Amino acid sequence: MDSSFLLVQFVSGLTMATLLFLVASGLTLIFGVGGVFNFAHGSFYMLGAYLAYTVVSLAHGNFWVAVLAAGLGAGVAGMIAEAAFLRRIYGRSEEGGFQILLTYSLILIIDDLVKLVWGTEYKSLSRPAGFTGSLVIGDVTLPSYNLAIVGVGLLVVVVAWWVLSRTRPGRIARATALDRETMGVLGVNVPLTMTLVFGIATALGGITGALAAPLRSVTPGAGIEVIIDSLIVVVLGGMGNFWGAWLAALLLGEVNAIAVATVPEWASLFSYLVMVVTLIFKPEGLFAPRQVRKV
After folding, report:
1. What is the distance between the terminal CA atoms of the chain, rounded to a whole angstrom?
2. Which of 52, 105, 115, 206 is found 20 to 30 A from 213 (Cα to Cα)?
3. Contacts (Cβ under 8 Å, ≥6 apart) of 88
4. Strand pairing partners for 218?
5. Is residue 259 one of the residues assigned to a domain?
6. Residue 187 belongs to what domain range?
7. Is the separation of the CB atoms in 255 and 270 below 8 Å?
8. What are the average pLDDT values for consecutive 10-residue runs of the chain, which has 295 residues?
9. What ranges make up the beta strands (E) of the chain?
10. Rounded to two decimals, what is the model's pTM?
11. Taking the CB of residue 112, how many other CB atoms lie within 10 A of it?
């Protein structure tokens, strides 16, 4: 394998890692602040893909406007789901089975709504104008749309760091994750904060679905596949660890790219293999903060 081939595979892995991170970051945000594992998060990814398809293919809109519309639509749907259902199970992390049952019910509801509105046939979405070709660097040919996805992912990382670390809403969200009761006593509208966090997280899922639509088929049930991969990222990074999810997505994306290039018939197994090895030797996650052991 020459250097040009390795570079192409690296960019391919980076593209997959970016999409995984964008989904997993929303999943991590919900778990970190609300203590709820939203198993239905992949359904908002699917909803974003369908909304982008509608804006571009049916309304003949601009692709990037469609991406924003997908994020907005998924975010609003997420806030409605949070206010109507998930708000009732906050603080009940010991009832993990109940959380999974409720969020899995949301998967069934959203999937059926998608089938009712858009039908069951596969949809496809073309790459945006200006990103249909490739960037040629010497002997290396890199798809320009893949590079655009990587750029969007890096932008999200920087914005997320700035919002969570440097703004008052970000500090409030982090403090709410630690102690909701104290924040409520201090005058913070905790229910509204939780709803907004959930909306931002599901908007990230919707944006990712729109970005991934030109690379994958838009079909009912697409959320199940992406939530499994995102769960692996969250486990690798440490539950609720935003930056751990980013590093884990990079690791998983590159492992899959190498597997596809070397042993394509076994490539689908490598994600699970990495997760199993991690759970055996470091069940709290590769990038989870060190815990002080109590005597």
Report:
1. 52
2. 105
3. none
4. 123
5. no
6. 3-220
7. yes
8. 75 89 86 79 93 89 92 94 83 63 88 92 88 81 88 82 81 78 84 88 92 90 84 82 84 86 81 85 74 42
9. 134-137, 140-143
10. 0.87
11. 11
